[in-house]
Amino acid sequence: MLIKENGSQPSSLGPESNFTGHARRDPIHVADDPSRLAVGAVTFDPGARTVWHTHPVGQLLVITNGAGRVGTWGGEVREVRAGDTVWFEAGEKHWHGAGASTAMTHIAITEAVGGSAVDWLEPVSDADFDTA
Ligand code: MN
To answer: Which residues are within 5 Å of ligand 1 (an ion), measured at CB?
Structure first.
């Protein structure tokens, strides 16, 4: 059994290579082998979002605060709010982020394959973000 006390894991700023705008990451848990589970909270300031990316075996988002947007490649941008959940299929190219004028926090639940839980791609353009 492992208890991680609140305040024991430092926050970090999402790097520019993976995020547009200001996104604060608060780790919750990254499991050791044989578990492949990775869980973390991300808080996006208004306008902030991930770059396009995929996950090898999918990803679950639980929106815990605010209102934001999610988009899939070739699909429409959707608004999401606290209490919503979003499932992305394995390999589905997508992004997630805040609203244009509202912050959004989600918990991201992801499984790694071969030590990697995400493949980062190109930034989401302002035009793609603003189609909501
Ligand atoms: Mn994702």
So the answer is: 59
